Amino acid sequence: MMAPSSSRTLSRTFLHRLFFHNIVLKLVSLALAVGLWLAVAHDPMAEVEMNVPIEFQNLPDNLEIDSASFTDAQIRIRGPERLIHRLQPADVVAEINLATVKPGERTFDLTSREVHAPQELEVVQIIPGQFHLSFDERVTRRVEVRPRVIGSFADGLRVAQVVVDPSTVTVSGPRRRVEALEAAITDPVDASGVMTRAQFVTHAYVTDPLIQVAHPTMIRVMVIMEGAANKKN
Asked: What is the pTM of this model?
């Protein structure tokens, strides 16, 4: 059986090693922990307002958004000043799930549930709190390409014929808008100085921002001139 004095000696040795082994490292760790606690405890709160585009997710493949203007959200974020100063626009995301939408109009709520921000930061205000969108079926059709020929021509000459190749393009977009579209048009073709004929390469586009030209390709425009005296009555 171990003597009491030996037991006390072992206890003191254990405690000495427990508290004084690697004492410098332990003191540095304690200082760092206290410094970190003081920094967090005394970090003032701050707010910042950010303009964040609303991201639309899971739109059904057969639908298009039939709204000419899309909404950005003004989002005010509150949190420790050290984090607010490091906050980047890409760190805050506003997402709307469109998986269940159908053709027609719908109002969406925009709350803190739809806004994702880094931890320790709080979303305190969102403007607008609601926004309105309309949806329509996606359709495609071929439409005529109408060339735009401009320029100053020599006396006695006029544009006799304009040949476009390809003469049609395929467009895609919301049904109501696509069905109302008359034609795609080309960028202006300046035929100044053409005496007989000349070919130009340009692009075709539609003025409605919600209609897209599918598979865009270069458009060749042939401008053919003739004498004004050759004009047929």
From this structure: 0.68
